[in-house]
């Protein structure tokens, strides 16, 4: 069975993370999530994700998830005894969202598209963290009007804040005409926006926030096909592109530092860095142990090496 990195890490990552930090304890009444296609459960409702093989292994029909099965956030919900998280978009103006809502959108970026347009003359996705947080605040104003009600609701909720920022890099790297070194220059701004976004939800009343890091993008099939080289020294022992994995590691190093700063400013709030990189690499290093034939080949498009 082929697998994308995002699909491959689902079960082990969910088990490791939830058992380590949260558990099936009934601690949370709802989940609110912000991210991109990694956990979008139906806010982006067009394109090939409406057709097989998407949704083929668990739901047995396409569900607007960028996977043939469940996503990370689905495992979070099930581990906490909650229903699968509904997308916010279809019911933004009317939904009550008693067990939470998912604001993640396929293609979403951390910084605003204007940032890239003005600084780099580069067109980015219009979906961004500003939009997701704005929609979140609109929903909160309706389902928990007033500061006290909002704080009470969020204190009983788990916030999944990411992964976000990956597409800021992906969309740049996919354009082979641009320097691959430039994303290092805007990386600090991506990190700062994630940190300020986490602070926004804390200011609204959130008490437990997961902040996932980036994946080993040098192992992702679309990178392996789009950035293929003839130099064996460009690859590690697992067949992943070393330069891109080092880039992800740098992002994660800075993000861990930012999470530490946010945590120090907010005593009494749990801000938890979650290691997507390490969890994904477990599948790359030991695929057979997890029932995976080839961890570097996609299940649903995205090619491979």
TrEMBL record:
Q: Which InterPro entries match?
A: GDSL (IPR001087), SGNH_hydro_sf (IPR036514)
Which keywords describe this protein according to UniProt?
Answer: Glycoprotein, Signal
Record organism: Triticum aestivum
Residue ranges that the Swiss-Prot or TrEMBL entry lists as coiled coil:
none
Signal sequence extent: 1-25
Q: Any idea which GO molecular function terms this record carries?
A: hydrolase activity, acting on ester bonds
Q: Which Pfam families match?
A: Lipase_GDSL
Which superkingdom, per the lineage? Eukaryota
Family, per the entry? Belongs to the 'GDSL' lipolytic enzyme family.
Q: Which protein are we looking at?
A: Uncharacterized protein
């Amino acid at each position: 069975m082929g697998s994308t990195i995002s699909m491959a890490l689902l079960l082990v990552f969910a088990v490791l993370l939830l058992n380590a930090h949260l558990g099936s304890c009934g601690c949370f009444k709802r989940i609110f999530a912000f991210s991109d296609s990694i956990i979008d459960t139906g806010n982006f409702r067009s394109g090939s994700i409406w057709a097989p093989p998407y949704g083929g292994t668990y739901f047995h029909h396409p569900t607007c998830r960028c996977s043939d099965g469940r996503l990370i956030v689905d495992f979070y919900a099930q581990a906490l005894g909650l229903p699968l998280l509904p997308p916010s978009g279809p019911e933004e103006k009317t939904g009550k969202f008693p067990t939470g809502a998912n604001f993640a959108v396929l293609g979403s970026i951390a910084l605003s598209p204007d940032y890239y347009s003005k600084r780099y003359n580069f067109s980015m996705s219009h979906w961004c963290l500003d939009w997701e947080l704005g929609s979140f605040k609109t929903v909160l104003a309706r389902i928990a009007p007033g500061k006290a009600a909002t704080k009470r609701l969020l204190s009983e909720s788990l916030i999944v804040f990411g992964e976000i920022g990956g597409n800021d890099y992906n969309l740049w790297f996919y354009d082979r005409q641009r320097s691959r070194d430039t994303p290092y220059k805007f990386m600090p701004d991506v990190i700062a926006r994630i940190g300020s976004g986490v602070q926004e939800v804390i200011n609204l009343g959130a008490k437990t926030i997961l902040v996932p890091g980036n994946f080993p993008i040098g192992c992702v099939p679309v990178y392996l096909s789009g950035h293929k080289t003839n130099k064996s020294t460009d690859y590690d022992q697992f067949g992943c592109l070393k330069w891109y994995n080092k880039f992800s590691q740098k992002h994660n190093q800075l993000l861990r530092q930012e999470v530490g700063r946010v945590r120090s400013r907010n005593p009494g709030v749990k801000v938890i860095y979650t290691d997507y990189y390490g969890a994904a690499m477990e599948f790359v290093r030991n695929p057979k142990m997890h029932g995976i034939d080839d961890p570097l080949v996609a299940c649903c498009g995205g090619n491979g090496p």
